[in-house]
Prior knowledge:
Mean pLDDT: 79
Order of helices and strands: HEEHEHEH
Number of helices: 4
Radius of gyration: 20 Å
Amino acid sequence: MIRPFIRLILIAALIAPNLAIADIAQTPVQFCWATGKFDHTIYFAEVGNREDRQASFDTLLEISGIDHHAVKCTTSDIETHRLTRAQLMKGWLESEFEIVNTTFLSDLDY
């Protein structure tokens, strides 16, 4: 017969991974993009579980001398982010736009 304490530990061990997965699924992800004004380029960046990076992304584009239309950002849970990103990427890939991932640059503090 399994002692109640051991049974409790076993149940906790089975539940813990599910709670961790649920926590990760609720982690907010910010996805920002902007279209170049004079080139056919989409610049984008994404970051999870961080403060608002829209200003950093906009500043990166300005410092880089990239004339661009207004920066657009969404913040959502991981699943919604994946769906939104996939839809946007599909549309961008089917257009004449070049796509540039600036995630590693826009994460710097300017």
